[in-house]
Amino acid sequence: MRYKNYLNQTIADLSGQIIVVTGANSGLGFEATRYLSYKGATIVMACRNIAKAEVAKQTIINENPEAKLDIIAYDQADFASIDAFIGQLKSKYRRIHALVCNAGIYYPQRNLEMKPGLKLTMGTNFIGLYYLLRQIMPYLDVVGAPTRVIFVSSLSAYHQRNKAFKAMLKPNQSLFRQYANSKLAIFHFFHVLANGMNLHDFQDRKNVSFFLMHPGVTATHITDNFPNWLSRLAHGFLQFTVHHVDKASLGIVTLAGAQHVFNGSYIVPRGIFEISGFPRKRSFPKRMVRGSGQFIYDVGKYVRDISK
User: Which of 103, 210, 215 is closest to 155 using CA atoms?
Assistant: First the structure.
């Protein structure tokens, strides 16, 4: 395991803490699970593909036999799956200490939809995430040390212009634009929650802290959704040009386990153009979240309509 020195210098012992990681079977989620379990936390691996999750779990246990890992089925593109996941989580754990919102997709088939008129990328990466937070918030908001919620966004969000939520739902957008819009929407969501704005579904959350990170550019398995030839080309190119996913995941690990982070912290890679490097805090780019209150207000109305 690389970066043990960073972990030991930055993260205290996490024994007794319960940390949920969505999308924990591959990429950033897998590496964050490895590192957080190494520091003693019990990790709930919230995964859509249980077979792949079992393989990932065994890989970590082979490396660290003392790792405490629990798999619960979770599909962020399915409201019923999200509700069932929360029910199982409540039945097993009195409380959780951190929720890592990492699950997402990048390159599904172009016309796949989560709901009629809702493309799968926006549906999975953001609408499902919004629904998860709406449903799970009362469980997170318990007296004691604040529960941490860590959002994973993307450098691609920097290249998008602020727009109304309905504009993000327009059909015939490229798959990259759908992905980047979904990650910009996460910036809006984080801004509203971290700043304590009370909007419909999120009226009171005194004992929850919110954090945001992006991993820069890294060779994750997100390219597996590309056509086979393009996936192999993209993965090979990224392996030699950007930092490895294990280093990229350290931003998640820091926000989930370090003692020196506070509500509203935003972490990015420290290298040039934030492409790669060890985690560093930076000021939140307010230019990206103008109109966040109205944006999330509109999202709330939309989610209430489609989840009836």
Answer: 215
